[in-house]
Amino acid sequence: MLAAIAVLALSFVARYLFGIPLPPELLADFIFAVLPIWLIEFGVSLLGPFAKHLAFIGCVALYLVVLIGLARLLIGVFPRHSTLTRALSSYSGGGRTGVWIGRRRVVRWMGYAVVGVAAYDIGRALLIPWLKSGAGRVRGGSGVFPDLDGLSREITPTADFYDVSKNTDDPEVDVKRWKLEIGGQVENALSLTYDDIKQLPSVEQYATLECISNSVGGDLIGNAAWRGVR
Q1: DSSP conformation class of 204
Q2: Which domain holds residue 164?
Q3: Model confidence over 4-53: pLDDT tens digits?
Q4: Phi, psi of 105 (to 5 degrees)
Q5: By C-alpha distance, which of 59, 14, 12 is closest to 32?
Q6: Do residues 200 and 228 lie in contact, with contact meaning Cβ atoms separated by under 8 Å?
Q7: Among 30, 41, 134, 143, which residue is least crowded by beta carbons within 10 Å?
Q8: CB–CB of 175/194 below 8 Å?
């Protein structure tokens, strides 16, 4: 179990320091891709943003169970009289010096960690919408149009623009390596880098974005002036 936890910790370090895909993250993305949409909508409506975090925690637990199974398999494969086995036995044997961490204590620590993450996510999911309630709307208006209290602003401030993501952890795009490939049934195939796109003529237009889960008068909607290449 300790070896599995160590591998899990190294996986997280590799994910956030070197960008190496995390198996539980890939598994969570796969589950969201194959589950029926009605089931995902039910989970999101019931748990809100915490639904995807709960799914990710479940995938992490499943990954840990798989690692523990692999560790036990390796223990069965290696000979019992190996140097490592004798060292571990003497380290944890009765009357010997050393500190032995019991499995129950490790499981209890894991439970505390899961509860802590869940409490953080639930608190964050409840606190942020409360703090941002009424974002992008007129507050303390004069009562004269368009300065009506509670009315959506014509242009939503960037900080108040709604943000919805299905990812457990949003990817970071490396603009130096990113390319836009335009192929298929086109007369001239193109491969454009980010700098190539920035050098093309751009246009600006106003457009409104709204989440399909937005209710009447909800905050999951915003309007802004967008600039880009046609």
Answers
A1: E
A2: 158-228
A3: 888 888 888 887 788 787 888 888 888 888 888 888 778 777 776 677 77
A4: -65, -40
A5: 59
A6: no
A7: 143
A8: yes
